[in-house]
Write a structure and sequence with these properties.
By secondary structure, this protein is mainly α. Helix content is 69%, strand content 1%. Helix 7 packs across helix 9, helix 8 runs antiparallel to helix 9 and helix 8 packs parallel to helix 10. The two termini are 33 Å apart.
Length: 398
Amino acid sequence: MQTQTQSPARLIYLDWIRVAAFGLLILYHVGMFYVTWDWHVKSDHTGHTIEPLMLITNPWRLTLLFLVSGAATRFMADKMSPGMLAGRRSLRLFLPLVFGILVVVPPQSYYEVVEAIGYDRGYPDFWAHYLAADPNFCDADGCLAVPTWNQLWFVAYLLVYTVILAALLALFRAPLLRLGGRLAALPAWLLFLGPILWLAAARLILLSRFEVTHALVDDWYNHAVSFSAFLFGFLTLKDDRVAGAFIRLRWLALVVFLVCYGLYAGYAWAWRADDAVPPEALRATMRLVHAADQWSAIVAVLGFGARHLTRDSRLLRTLTVAVFPFYIVHQTLIVVVGHHLKALHLPALLEASLLIAATALGCWLAFVIARRIGPLGLLLGLGARKAVPPLDPAPAAR
């Protein structure tokens, strides 16, 4: 029988995938400035043009991040007690979450009400009302809920999932890890088909009852997807049998993903009008397609990553640490810079290029400053200063 071989410290390909996934997420949020979907602020160039491109990553990008986060948590859990895991991860996630809600996120809400209702009383006045949970920022579509965590819902959910996992480890560590071994030993076809069926069932049964809210307490479809991905990553991705299965499946998964993406993007484009109501049978079919798109994309990413993204570097180690501060600040940068760029009435391509460049530069500056100021580093998720590697893009000696 094939035996399990585990990496003693980290899996390099997962680090590359995590960095790339966060990069795609930042670009996705830049795209939200330009599509017709609801978002905080909007460009004057808003339209349907790039919506099919946005749908390339829409079904799977955050599920992949929860999966990889679960794997990273496994490496930590194998080196410490459940109580220590819960304590360290809570500190690492809770402080940035609170700081984000109180300081980083409010400018997003401010410019949202400036554009939505013409709020003109200045940011200090808005911030005071924001902290006081003032419900009076309203328009025809309803009232803005403040304070809020906006994109930091991912951090809140990851914090809750980690605490739940630590409790499960404290009570059921041995059976939980045995379950992981059994999942890793499944035939490759089951590792491909089984999650698709789970995701399809969740979408068919839960989505119509529990729309995605990112509000934690009522987000049951999102939990069914995100927590299961987190747990699956924790239980299986450290096992090289799973990586081997995904490597073998990578081309099949890529083909399935491309077919499902074509079907789902065509469906979304055909029914893009706000008042369009597709037949229920078609909606149910597209939920199955969405599930296949979602998991096949993840399998393809993991398979090609495990096959090709195996080279370590100092740049990778730096970016692995930097992506969390990037995630915390990036959306605020996009909203603030995007709002002010709009006033310049630039051509769409120039405006988007400047927005991407300004966001990237702002993220990097936030990271560089945070790594030099200990308390700010903690508030932006860097943890202990000794964990931050030198800023040296040269490949590590091999």
